[in-house]
Amino acid sequence: MAIKPPALQSGDTIGLVTPGSPLDANIINARIQTLMNMGFNIAYGRYMYSFDGIVSAPAPQRAEDIMTMFQNPQVKLILATRGGTGVQTLLPFLDYDIIRQNPKIISGYSDITVLLNTLYQSSDLITFHSLMLGDFRPDTPTYNFNQFFEATSTGVSPRVIQNPPNFPQVSLVPGNVTAPIIGGNMTSLVNTLGTPYEIDTKGKILFLEEVNSPTTMIYRYLAQLQMAGKFQDCLGIIMGECTNCLVSWGTTYQQLINQFLVPLRKPLMINLSTGHGLYKATIPIGATVNLNTTENRLTVVEPTVSFV
C-alpha cells in the first residue's frame, strides 16, 4: 500500500518550487498572497523565481529545491508554481529514499506529471494530480478548491470523483475494476518511455489528458503508448479533456479514443474534468480507486492523507 502523506491544515507551511519552466515573479507573488489570505505560511524555494531559458534553473538546482522542501519538517505541501517543460531532467538528482522517509503532499499537473508518477513508483508516495500555485486565484472555481482540500485535508473515504454539473463524464466500455490510479499529461508520460522513469501501467488504472496538441500529435501519443504495451498492461482507462486540441484531417479526439481504446474492451471513462481544463478534479496518483463504468462512477476507496 502506498504511503499517505500527512494532511494539510490551516496555518501549515506550503513550500513553493518551480520544477519546470519559469513563471513571472509578479504572478508568483499575486498567487502567494492568495495562499496567505487562506491562512497558510510560505517557504520559498531558492530557485523559485529563477529563469534559465526554457527551464527555471539547471536540473540539479531544481532538484535541490524539491529535496530541501522534503527535508524541511515545517513544510506540509510542496506546490509547483507551474509545469511547462523540462521536469524530467531533474529526476536523476532526487534522493528517493529520503523522500520515502519524509512523505509530503506534492501537487501539480501538466509536466509535473512525470514527477508525480516517479515519486509514486520510486518512493511509494501518493501524490496529487491537482492544483499548482498558478491556480490559487480569486476567480478559481470553487469546485477545484473543494476537490483539492477534500483530498489533501480530510480523511473522507470513499470519495466519489464527479464532474461539475453540465460537464458529464461518460463511460464508453462497461466494467468494474479496482486498482491504483496513475497517469496525467500524455506528452509528459510519452517522454518517459525508454527511460529509467518509464511509467509502469501493469495492474493499474491509467488516466490521460492533454493540452494544445493537434489530433495528429494525439494519434502519435496513443500509438506510442499502445506499441509500448501500456494499454495492454493496464486494467482500465480514464481519458480526461484534450484542452485546446485542434482537429487535424477531420479526425477528432473522440474518434481517436474510439479507434485506439474502445476495441480494447477494458473499462473506459472519458471527459473527466481535470488537468488543463477550467474544472480540475484531484486525482491521487498511487491511491486505490474503483472505476465502475457500468454505473459511470469513479471512487477513491481509501483516504489519501494521514492524520498520525
From TrEMBL:
GO process terms (BP): proteolysis
Domain spans labelled LD-carboxypeptidase N-terminal: 14-129
> Record's SUPFAM superfamilies?
Class I glutamine amidotransferase-like (SSF52317), LD-carboxypeptidase A C-terminal domain-like (SSF141986)
Q: Which residues form the active site?
A: 110, 209, 276
Q: Which InterPro entries match?
A: Carboxypeptidase_A_C_sf, Class_I_gatase-like, LdcA_N, Peptidase_S66_N, Peptidase_S66C, S66_fam
Outline the extent of the LD-carboxypeptidase C-terminal domain: 179-291
What is this protein called in UniProt? Putative murein peptide carboxypeptidase
- The species this protein belongs to is Halalkalibacter krulwichiae
Keywords, comma-separated and alphabetical? Carboxypeptidase, Hydrolase, Protease, Serine protease
Q: Which family is this sequence assigned to?
A: Belongs to the peptidase S66 family.
The EC number(s) this enzyme carries: 3.4.16.-
Gene Ontology MF: a single term: carboxypeptidase activity
State the encoding gene: ykfA
